Batch of 2 targets.
Target 1
Amino acid sequence: MKLIYSDDHKGHTGGKELRYDKMIPMSESPERMDMIITALSNVGLNDIIEPKSYNLDIAHKIHDPAFVSFLEHAYPLWEKEFGPGGFATAYTFGMRGMAQTPNASIHSMLSCYTFDVCCPIVSGTWKAIRSAVNVALTGVDQMQQGEKSVFSLCRPPGHHASKDMAGGYCYINNAAIAAQAHLDYGAPRVAILDVDYHHGNGSQSIFYDRKDVLYASLHARPEDEYPFLMGYANEIGTGDGKGYNLNIPMPIGTTFDLYKNNLKIALKQISDYDPEVLVLSLGVDTFAGDPVGGFKLQSPDFEVIGNLIAELRIPTHFIMEGGYLMEALGENVKNVVTGFSS
Ligand code: SP5
Ligand code: ZN
């Protein structure tokens, strides 16, 4: 399987996140990519392609252009007020039910365009965001040129990012952009399977009223876990999209027995949908001991996940999402790939 990857994400570092009552270095770090690349190359998966450069046209089909422009300009605006070396982060969030009047200040923009305390914007963030989109779109092009499956090693991840909001380490939704690009190349239907531990609220919201993209997610239940407000099983889509959104929430402590059964349910629905392409939002933060997760999957389980997905026999576009336990991240991602390829 070809890997698409660029080092251009590396300047997206040094930001902090508020984890409950503590300010900590972001769990989502550049070193994550080193772990993954090393583990993949150890088993001979070292066919790495540099991304091509694309304009923002497809990004603008998924995201509000004003939001994208905010992401580009947020850090320089922040730096004008606070000086270099820090990170932009919101102080207030949407005040439901109250009249609100956004303005041109960086703080107002952060309040409008982010939804949580884990999407800091540093000097290198925009370059990383652009690169992740290029990595995703180069994967689409590779599949267009005949590759049956490719792995876009995107960083930062994307599945929490909605049309006009960043959050959860995510700024631009790489998987959604990839799905849209596959459609634009002529695929009538694309499915997104999201196996990240967290519900992909952004991906769900982007495609919630559409039937040309099926979104199926396995994740920790909102009663227990971030993003706390979405991801319930009764969220099945709306309008044309009704029946094309599948959420399978599971409790903290979930082991592979339950997970595997639920994965089979999601795969069955994807198979019935008969998509031309499967976009896999691949997070391995379901691993036991992940510092941001709470499930109990073991490393060999990821091989089974890859294997079950491959049984669909659908061209599959891997897009990297979460996974934060550095010692295990590389092996777990590698296991999904080898399970898929075997
Ligand atoms: C892409 C991705 O995986 N984003 C995740 C963002 C989650 N940030 C909030 C973390 C909430 C902390 N839960 C801690 C569980 C400790 N076992
Ligand atoms: Zn996650």
Note: Residues 196-198, 283, 285, 322 surround zinc ion (ligand 2) (CB under 6 Å).
Target 2
Amino acid sequence: MAPYIGTGTSRIDGIAKVTGAAKYAAEFNAPGLLHGSIVASTIAKGRLRRIDASAAKRVEGVVDVLTHTNRPRIADDDKAYKDDVAPSGSPFRPLYDDRILFSGQPIALVVAETSEVARYAASLVEVEYEKEPHVTDVYRQRDAAIPVKPPTNEFEALFTPPKTRGAPEQALAAAAVRHEAEYTTPIEHHNPMELYAATVVYEGHGKLTVYDKTQGVQNVQRYLCGVFDMKPEDLRVVSPYVGGAFGVGLRPQFEAVLAVLAARALRRSVRVVLTRPQMYALGYRPAMIQRIALGANSGATLDAITHDAVTVTSQYEDYNRQETGWSGLLYTCANASYAHKLAKLDLPTSCDMRGPSAATGVYALECAMDELAVALNIDPLDLRLRCYSERNQDTGQPFSSKELRECYRQGAEAFGWDKRNPEPRSTRDGRDLVGWGMATGVWDAWQAPITVRIVLSASGDAEVACATSDIGTCTYTIMAQVAADMLGLPLEAISVKLGDSSLPQSPVEGGSWIAASVSSGIATTAAAIRDELLRLAKQIPNSPLASAAPGEVALVDGKLVSKADASRSVSIADAMRQGAVTNIEREITTNPGQDARAHNTHSAIFAEVKVDEQLGVIRVTRVVSAVAAGRILNAKTASSQILGSVVWGIGMALREETLIDHRDGRIANANIAEYLVPVNADVQDIKVIFVDEADDSNPLGVKGVGEIGIVGVPAAIANAVYHATGKRIRDLPITLDKLLV
Ligand code: MOS
């Protein structure tokens, strides 16, 4: 097509980011800005008996202390608090009443002239509670878990668990070879680098500008308008840069509510920044207990799958995704059943976290497949190929494209899988045991309705605008790349506007759907601009394009050019001059890809671990991730997406775990010193391969790469640990103590 789409292009916002010019939510300023510091509950369940803020109020520089007893009015019905991606239930209302729903719940906001004073004064607020018994342990609550309710809206319907097919119990009983086991994963937290923050600028006349850290400015706008009964024209939400979010910014969070509450109460501009420990009260990947049974027939293909899961949610909302559905979708298997229950705990509501449901559900499936391969005495890759499916097994739909076979082939070749000795503990490197494991990854290739506005000027500059976010996913850059190619302009001629609720509508940036959605929107809108240019160009006397139809011309190097005869062209400037216009503007809503096919991305992951036999220390020395995700818009940053996901997969396999002290229901490691994630020393050789995959679901064949990279990685590593040591650890993270028992 053209020079930008597909090529490895550095971020157009990269220099702004590394020089500090890019401003994040806590960096916007306003005259007389006040600072809010949150006081959080130290009990998990009960009531507030008394909040004594007198000592805090005596500190010089403190302006006010807001609690549920003195706050301005906020909405009192659930509907007002429902955001675009809220699960069913009764959403949390910050500073609403005296009820404590989880430890870490905000119960007061100290507002002061400086952040230091606010934080110090917050430490002086005294709170008396009326404690009630709480439960925060999923293992204590698993027997009381309740079945997931049927979906209540279109969004929830995306995550409907599949129906039972065939007769799984009978098939399992009759299977030649069976494997059944329980796999468990802990609560994990997102820990983006940027702290959650909102700076609310009090514009006067009741108008507010809210600079918030979020994955969806219009979602936050609608939500805040509901909570505070404000009109959208009086409340603008802006979020030009986001320092990582990973799902916890999909729903509006309490920093924004508290900052708006204080700004309205005090008629001043207010900033609220969460501390790192406070961020552990926002949301988390639910812990999961899964039981999988697989049955194979004598031909070593799958006959039966049963997959039961318990995941964690709060007492007040029922968050769930299709945790068990992936195992039904992926492999050819005539008999399958699923059951998904929710353990309700005295914690905040769980939420999406990179590859939600697949990171955990596919972990268990892919470990179980490895165990089945061992039981069948065949190569684990061979088992996947024998069970390969050309259709989504849950729905029977054919895939719009599926190059997973090529992922297996190219991944295995790059890794050297054919040299694997199947015997566990068969390979050593000095004092280390060496293990090789593999797994499959799968994710959705969704699209969502989105509106893009493009303004092309006669001088050959264009502005592309959409209210989407760039949560670090390179959205600015891919938008510019696509616009540049479609408009035939250099990348530098494109300016991108996003992260502002006043821009054309966008869904939240999540689910890996924005790249496909926004690139389709840009392609379609740019085509409309091209058509208008052609209409004008045809009016030029003796126009070289007099007989050209819209599909017969393209925009190249600032000109409208006949595809058949490049000597026939009209410049953008000449066409606009003919029409006596200085710019052309189009705003179009698109929603392609809504056909009756299955839309998914896939991957094959191969991992090598080296395990110190005496100490149990595991190092991931090599990972190859081969990904099929349609057309890759930016080879450089897409590769970084996958690489970062693999690093996260290492964390999930070996490090990450939120630890709750169940005696008081508090998180014991709510900081990034004790919540362990991989650091540079843990990351060795990671190779990312993008397999060619042609897809016609949208104009550019884009599927999105935000989440596929993590799915399957923990399983590949766990399987490699088994291969190295002969020990199956079915409880993540695989820490050395588990290996040494
Ligand atoms: Mo993603 S977990 O939808 O930000």
Note: The chain has 19 helices and 31 strands.
